[in-house]
Design goal:
Structural class: mainly beta
Number of strands: 37
Strand order of the largest sheet: 15-14-19-24-21-22
Largest sheet: 6 strands, mixed
Shape: globular
Number of helices: 5
Length: 565
């Protein structure tokens, strides 16, 4: 069953609240008991109980004493989100999966049951953009922080919501996220602008009538496949079938809308005809508000926007548009990935006209000014990575400095660290950062006219430079409150320079978030503060999962055909 609009109140079987948290302390943030309160009101969105939008959440986190506990099940399903039936993989029977909700400072516990008994898939769940501060083993990346969970087994992930805003969760096993194993996650907290109502998430995705697994061979041999359609919150039309996503505006009301790009290979521009968006957050970082009519949203990125319902005198119904950018990738339904905003509660096909735009793979970097200002420290540690492409055994593979990542489902890097392995295979693509609280700069560049949305686990990074052309020692770096986020675009034939501080021990993946490219090896990993990692890892859980997977993979004769992540 597909969910075109997900409720903000979760079913009791999905979600529970427990008063006591399993975390009694944190290694790197100050915890402060939170007074019982409602959070904020439409006229006080900058507040959050005893805290505010000015609180530096990197160092201060409310101690709510609350655990948000969820149970999700991964299953094989048949779906027809646009009226065309095909097999898929779902979370609790829906695509996208249920929206999970917590408050800033809560402890989140999610029990994930793998019920892929038909496809016999292993799995994992990654909590995209969540820092996992001192909880690296719960990052949910196969071959990096865990082995895949086998069918019939349940794995529990536990972490603190030290950030707030909009994010998503998805499988990090092969191409499974784009078979349907993905959903939204909302962490309530303060905001940089007032609004009346939280409309919830708008989950954007591209969609094919063949499964991505069926398309994998073509992706490796002839290039990225062109998908037939796209979905808004799991629904759309195709020819004369399917149905559009619809939502109702009440005239005069201001709405917070949480946008998520969960596509495999589509960079969207998002618009609502005749309406202006006030952008208040990028990924999980509150920003100084700015207005736009057309918003660029790269793969893996999120934006929180406020829209005022002030167009009732113009029309009853308006198009909501998610427009694939042909400069990044093609889609057969490029002009028809649309939803409807209705002011009457009864949707009919709008007659409104969209905004003008220039087709481009563009980021919003120039508009992003983080609300909590930070200055980047100087660094003696700068690494440069050149993105390229290679043909290995007749198949396309992406490389960084001529190495295509190839890691092993059965032997994740975290397991190697706790077993005191000190030298890693070259195609593990490991960069070691041994020292605490040092600044690290990374320059990624490419001569190829292909953009790449770069995602880093375990950190928000600072965008020091982003543009066309080569990165050199003369490239100007912005160190004064530069944009920070967890996904930024490496421009075609260009460079991206990021920075982060080594304040979070663990094994952290960095990769292109185009699904094909991830599976084709466009990735590297940081082993950050090696000497501290084993001491914060539940070794028994790690080894039990790996033992079960090794036995299952051998008994089922399952071969690894991609990068392992």
């Amino acid at each position: 069953m597909l969910a075109s609009k997900l409720p903000t109140i979760m079913l009791p079987l999905l979600y529970g609240i427990v008063a006591a948290s399993p975390f009694s302390h944190s290694h790197s943030v100050d915890l402060h008991p939170r007074a019982a309160c409602a959070g904020n009101t439409p006229t006080t969105r900058n507040e959050w109980c005893d805290f505010s939008i000015d609180t530096d959440y990197a160092n201060v986190v409310p101690d709510t004493g609350v655990t948000r506990e969820y149970w999700i099940e991964l299953t094989d399903v048949m779906v027809a989100p646009d009226g065309v039936s095909r097999p898929a993989l779902a979370i609790n029977g829906s695509i996208p999966g249920p929206t999970l909700i917590a408050d800033w400072g809560d402890t989140v516990v999610v029990h994930v049951t793998n019920s892929f008994t038909t496809s016999t898939n292993g799995s994992s769940i990654h909590w995209h953009g969540i820092r996992q501060n001192y909880t690296n083993e719960h990052d949910g990346v196969v071959s990096i922080t865990q082995c895949p969970t086998i069918p019939g087994e349940t794995l529990t992930y536990t972490w603190r919501a030290t950030q707030y805003g909009t994010t998503w969760y998805h499988s990090h096993f092969a191409l499974q996220a784009w078979e349907g194993v993905a959903g939204a996650f909302i962490i309530n907290g303060p905001a940089t602008a007032n609004y009346d109502e939280d409309l919830g998430t708008i989950f954007l995705s591209d969609w094919g009538h063949s499964t991505v697994d069926e398309l994998w061979t073509a992706a490796q041999t002839t290039g990225p496949p062109v998908l037939e359609n796209g979905l808004i919150n799991g629904t759309n039309v195709y020819n004369d079938t399917g149905s559009r996503f619809t939502t109702t505006f009440n005239a005069g009301t201001s709405y917070r809308i949480r946008l998520i790009n969960g596509a495999i290979d589509t960079h969207f521009k998002f618009t609502i005809d005749n309406h202006t968006m006030l952008v208040i957050a990028a990924d999980l970082v509150p920003v100084q508000p700015f207005s736009t009519n057309v918003l660029n949203i790269g793969i893996g990125q999120r934006y929180d926007v406020v829209v005022v319902a002030d167009q009732a005198s113009v029309a009853d119904n308006f198009w909501m548009r998610a427009i694939p950018q042909a400069a990044c990738a093609d889609n057969e339904s490029a002009d028809n990935i649309r939803g409807i905003v209705t002011y009457t509660g009864t949707a009919s096909e709008p007659n409104t006209t969209g905004y003008d735009y220039t087709d481009a793979c563009a980021d919003e970097t120039g508009n992003l000014v983080p609300w909590v200002s930070k200055t980047v420290g100087t660094s003696d540690i700068t690494t440069s990575e050149e993105a390229g492409i290679a043909i290995l055994n007749g198949l396309f593979r992406w490389t960084l400095n001529s190495t295509s990542m190839l890691v092993d489902w059965q032997n994740p890097t975290l397991l190697q660290v706790v077993e005191e392995v000190s030298e890693f295979e070259s195609d593990d693509s490991v960069l070691e950062l041994p020292n605490a609280n040092e600044w690290f700069y990374l320059a990624i560049q490419t001569d190829l006219a292909v953009p790449h949305p770069i995602h880093l686990h375990g950190h928000d990074f600072f965008v020091l430079s982003q543009g066309t052309g080569e990165f050199t020692s003369n490239t100007t770096l912005n160190l004064d409150n530069p944009p920070r986020r967890d996904v930024a675009l490496l421009p075609p034939s260009g460079h991206l320079v990021i920075a982060f501080e080594t304040d979070n021990p663990g094994v952290w993946l960095m990769h292109c978030h185009i699904g094909w490219h991830t599976s084709q090896g466009f990735a590297l990993q940081f082993v950050e503060r090696y000497d501290e990692i084993a001491g914060i890892t539940n070794v028994a859980n790690l080894t039990d999962t790996c033992s079960a997977w090794s036995a299952f993979q051998a008994s089922e004769g399952i071969g690894q055909e991609d990068s392992g992540i």
